[in-house]
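Appendix B. Chain record.
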Amino acid sequence: MGKMRLDRFLSEESEFTRSEIKKMIKSGQVKVNGFGGVKPEQKIDPDMDEISLSGSNVKPTGMVYLLLNKPAGVLSATEDRRARTVLDLIDRPYAGKLFPVGRLDKDTEGLLLLTNDGMLAHKLLSPGKHVYKVYFAVVEGEVTKEDEDAFRDGIDIGEKKRTMPAVMRRLSVDGDFLSGIGTEKTEQQADDGEGGMDRRPVPEDLPEKVRGFCMGCLTLGDYSRAGEGQSLTAVALREGKFHQIKRMFEARGKRVTYLKRIAMGPLALGRELRTGDFRNLTEEEIAVIRG
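Structure tokens predicted for this chain:
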């Protein structure tokens, strides 16, 4: 990590503010390599020096990767004066160092990655990296095969360019597709047209991956959210425009009543993580998303 101020290190690695840390240093609650009488501005090397706060050793956190099942009503932000944010759900001293990778609308639930790894966040969010996000959506009205085709071709949502090609499939009550997986356009068949590489079609194996995520992540509670005259759908896209899925369905004359992200790249929400809870990514998951 390199050398840094003692008070800054302790405030980042604990639940205390910088001013509180200074008071604790002054009262003798902080030691460096077993010695007291330290100063807030003293430079320390967190990887080499032994730092203790109120008798407990404080170690540098390093890179953190948390998968959160975001509840509705919580903002995907680091701070807000009027509403709860996703960081308010993280009961860890290092919570203030984390930020969400992308954002979910306030009323959208599901998978949200929290980390302090800025390079990885950029990699996952860049549309050019083709990292797809998969959502479960309940929609008012009957979703048709024509709607599926429109998502695949890109939809005009009132911006300069149509949306990038996406996969949308109608679901049965057991999470399977109502229609066949079908054959997506290959890259050679696709019209580059407006936007060049941004018009690249979806990978041919993506619909099968979406099917797998639905079968492994959705619960009976999810399916029961659809009432009479409503449709269950799954959507996979690699963009993150403002209210994008809602606007895409609106362009087709339909309204989204419930939205939940169930996957991001290779990461899946699963069924075990309760709404509002979080877990550390496994070493295998970290290796896959870094790759």
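Further analysis of this model is presented in Appendix C.
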